[in-house]
Amino acid sequence: MDILQLLIYGIVLGGVIALGAIGVSLTFGILGFANFSHGDLMSTGAYIALIFFTTLAWPLWIALPIAMIATAALALAIDRSLYRWFRTRQPVILLISSFGVALILRSLVQMIWGPDTITYQTGIQMPYRVAGLRIRPDQITILLCTIFLVLAVHLFLQRTKMGKAMRAMADNPNLARLSGIDTERVVLWTWVLGGGLAGAAGVFLGLDTRLHPEMGWTLLLPIFAAAILSGIGKPYGAIVGGLVIGIVQEMSTLVIAAAYKPAIAFAILVVMLIVRPTGLFSGRSTV
Amino acid sequence: MSLLSMEKVTGGYGEADILHDVTLRVEAGEIVVIVGPNGAGKSTAMKAIFGLLKLRSGQIRFDGQDITNWKPDRVVRRGICFVPQTDNVFPTLTVQENLEMGAFVRNDDIRPAMERVFELFPPLREKRRQAAGTLSGGQRQMVAMGRALMLDPKLLLLDEPTAGLSPIFIDQIFQIVKQVNATGIGILMVEQNAKQALAIANRGYVMAQGANRHEGTGQELLADREVAEMFLGG
Amino acid sequence: MELAGLLTYGIFFLTLVGIYGLLALGLNVQWGYAGMLNIGVAAFFTVGAYTSAIITTAESSGHLGGFGLPFPVGLASAMALSGILALGVGLITLRLRSDYLAIASIGIAEIVRLTLKNEGWLTGGVRGMAGIPRPLAGLIPGYDATLYLLLVLAFVAAVYWANERAWRSPWGRVLRAIRENEAAARAMGKNSLLFRLQAFVLGAVVMGLAGALYAHFVRFISPEAFNPLFATFLIWVMLIAGGSGNNRGALLGAFVIWIVWSATEIFVTRLPEDLVTRAGALRVLLIGILLQVILLARPQGILPERPPRPERHE
């Protein structure tokens, strides 16, 4: 297939990965653990949108925000009921707990919506053709929404007091505490932001492909790869990391079987860990 | 009544006590220096004031109030700010954002406070939009102190502010400490460069093995033969 | 159920508990002793099972080999290959925070899973591999399963004994020290890192052994049985429930959790017809919640870790 065509697919996928990676990066920076439930949080968001977008046939611009809010609320509820109690213990306990949460969410999705693949809308969308390149209307929606969300996150982190406090806490949690920053409130906002973006990423993934209980879990590895690529704890790098991983994954189909796409993310990850463990944007150290 | 007083404080991070009956005080507007060999518990004494330690006995009073075992954010609000020895700036935040974070608990207009910091440390004004992590060691120390000054504290705790800096910067830092003190802020400082620190101090304490050893005015301690031999390197 | 049936089920049950017990013992060396987060237990379990299967099955057009070699050769190859895989993962992540090992280990598990599904020439793909011989079969006619159970239990006993010795040895002491203070240990030179690598590889070797024993027990393997749920998550729940850092705890955890897991199966099969298709998910949900409850209420497990008794000098 044409390289430019793959580039377009790669950018769409990269945007979805980036939205997930921002959340992973923030939770890692602020709470200090790799959240293994982030992928399944995305799936849950995608399925919540299914209720409004498909079952109730509401427009996407209503269904998407509802799914985002619901996913953010879910992330917050998980934090309040579980993670909060583990925070004072070792961070690895949080990781193990999040691994369990991933399975809980996935099995809930499977119990409610069944194990089969579902699409938001039946029927085939006619792609637009521009200069020989095909792009579906859904993919344009995904791209525009992703750009909008990334800009909104940027403004939040850059302009608001809470956004700055989040960056400060990701930079240096101890100093944040010593400065009198209300760290519990920062944690709360981290889940709201990370959860909301995960919800959006899930919906976009569902729009781009199909819904499946394992959709988010499958994307977890590329998301981690993007977050590490960018230097973990650095939300801006996560955007670039996501695009790189997305594009390389799509391009890789030129050389290897498409079934191994997820393995590409892992290959990049391994190379990163060996060559430059601090990430391209040299964030928090990995050691 | 002293601005800050520590009375017979005993405690540590876990099971073992690091501090044993440590007593010290800071009067309003004073510069007080704690000197002593490595592992004497100097920094730990400061952390005790800031609520980062588990105290088994003793009392810490600040400005007429018992603040023993308060949490750090409450201590900050009460008017004590702490500048740690290392990792004392937010490296990816700009200088201005670092200062804003220092004033996180304030909801009023922080521009006058920021203006005062810039007047105290003119180089920061030009670099206000630069990431703090990219500054030189001396300038980073300015940011760290500036951040702590954003709440108009009554007392500033400085943990080895000159550690790892070149001699030119060390002079600069002591100059800055005097300047900050001149605005009426009390200063409690742990220092390795004991001679220089005692020279600008009103009073000093010598600590060893987690306990008080000597105390006196800066001049007295500098003149004391035993102190000089034991702790000031002859 | 009549007595004979009950006995047969008992033997089946205990054999699986033994195999899971081995997995939990392997994970205990990695996590309990050395504090290394392996979220890809499935990878080593799978490699063990498929390696031994390829080595010992009769020649087949369905997959690589088989080479028809004896059972001990299969077992040894399974352990070696798992160990080599662990060596690779370990070398990459050795110097990094434990989170990175966790991420790298699911990466390896994912690649193993993809290979399993897509490389039919090697693994038989989704059709799986059949006709894996069971050792000791026919030795005492009618007692194949019992003999195999005894074989599995002998391996469990051997690994348990080795683990206990390791726990009390200076090697175990260094590992615990590293686990308690990862940052300090990383600053300590290569030797301590080498100790961790050894722990990771040894744990993986035991997982490879468990994989091989599993393959020869069920005699037909397909990707289904090696999904991260059965082959990674359950083992974590077992170790944490039993008590990480405690070998008896690991075995007890395997026993108790396998009972719970089997009980959930009985429970969900009694659900109304239309819910049965979703019953698998319900079982996972229950186990997932169980893990959280254990982490909240008794994080040290049923049998908490104990410092080894001082060695007696005679």
UniProtKB/TrEMBL annotation, chain A:
TM ranges: 7-34, 46-79, 91-113, 140-157, 186-207, 219-247, 254-275
Domain of life: Bacteria
Principal subcellular localization: membrane
Source species of the chain: Aquibaculum arenosum
Entry keyword Transport: yes
Entry keyword set: Amino-acid transport, Cell inner membrane, Cell membrane, Membrane, Transmembrane, Transmembrane helix, Transport
Membrane topology of the entry: Multi-pass membrane protein
Pfam families according to UniProt: BPD_transp_2
Sequence similarity: Belongs to the binding-protein-dependent transport system permease family. LivHM subfamily.
PANTHER family assigned: BRANCHED-CHAIN AMINO ACID TRANSPORT SYSTEM PERMEASE PROTEIN LIVH, HIGH-AFFINITY BRANCHED-CHAIN AMINO ACID TRANSPORT SYSTEM PERMEASE PROTEIN LIVH
Cellular location(s): Cell membrane
Name of this protein: Branched-chain amino acid ABC transporter permease
CDD domains assigned: TM_PBP1_LivH_like
Automatic annotation (TrEMBL), chain B:
Example GO molecular function: ATP binding
Domain ABC transporter intervals: 4-234
Residues of the signal peptide: none
Pfam family, one: ABC_tran
UniProt KW Transport keyword: yes
InterPro entries reported in the protein's UniProt record: AAA+_ATPase, ABC_transporter-like_ATP-bd, ABC_transporter-like_CS, BCAA_Transport_ATP-bd_LivF, P-loop_NTPase
SMART domains the UniProt entry points to: AAA
Gene3D superfamilies (UniProt xref): P-loop containing nucleotide triphosphate hydrolases
UniProt keyword annotation of ATP-binding present: yes
CDD domains: ABC_TM1139_LivF_branched
UniProt keyword annotations, A-Z: Amino-acid transport, ATP-binding, Nucleotide-binding, Transport
Family in the record: Belongs to the ABC transporter superfamily.
Protein name per its UniProtKB record: ABC transporter ATP-binding protein
TrEMBL record, chain C:
Keyword DNA damage listed: no
Compartments where located: Cell membrane
Organism name: Aquibaculum arenosum
Name of the protein: Branched-chain amino acid ABC transporter permease
Membrane-spanning ranges: 6-25, 37-57, 69-93, 100-116, 145-163, 193-213, 225-242, 249-268, 280-297
Keywords: Cell membrane, Membrane, Transmembrane, Transmembrane helix
Pfam families recorded: BPD_transp_2
InterPro entries the UniProt entry points to: ABC_transp_permease, LivM-like
